[in-house]
Amino acid sequence: MLELRPNCEFCDRDLPADSELARICSYECTFCSQCVDELFNNVCPNCGGGFVSRPLRPQQAHREGVSLISQPASTDRKHSPYSRNDVEIFSATLASIPPHQR
Ligand SMILES: [Zn+2]
Ligand SMILES: [Zn+2]
User: Fold this and answer.
1) What is the per-residue pLDDT for 17?
2) Among the four residues 22, 37, 55, 91, which has the most C-beta atoms within 10 Å?
């Protein structure tokens, strides 16, 4: 099950479960759209993959047992170990290659 992480792992902005600004890579690395678009150029700083919008888990149970009530968002804030300079260099090496060809 997808872990709905509470913050951008780079700029630490809050990304609550109902945020439409959250982006995730295939490893669930979670960042805000601003970092992904303006800083990473769609290159995950942790794995080099691309991003998609994080799906929105329903707030209410429209089917029994499946909603934020039963599976709430994570409260474990994560932080990228990479510096801004490192991320910019890493992104520059991969951004010209489409995610499906990396
Ligand atoms: Zn961010
Ligand atoms: Zn990643």
Assistant:
1) 97
2) 22
Residue 55 CA to ligand 1 centre (angstroms): 17
- Whether residue 48 contacts residue 94, with contact meaning beta carbons closer than 8 Å, is answered with yes
What pairing do the DSSP bridges indicate for beta strands 52-53 and 22-24?
antiparallel
Q: How far does the centroid of ligand 2 lie from the alpha carbon of residue 62, in Å?
A: 31
Residues near ion ligand 1 (CB < 5 Å) are: 8, 10-11, 32, 35
Question: Helix or strand or coil: residue 102?
Answer: coil
Query: Quick one: tokens of 88?
Result: 């910019």
- The H helix count followed by the E strand count for the chain is 2, 3
**How close is the Cα of 31 to the center of ligand 1, in Å?**
5
**pLDDT tens string 63-93:** 999 999 999 999 999 999 999 999 999 999 9
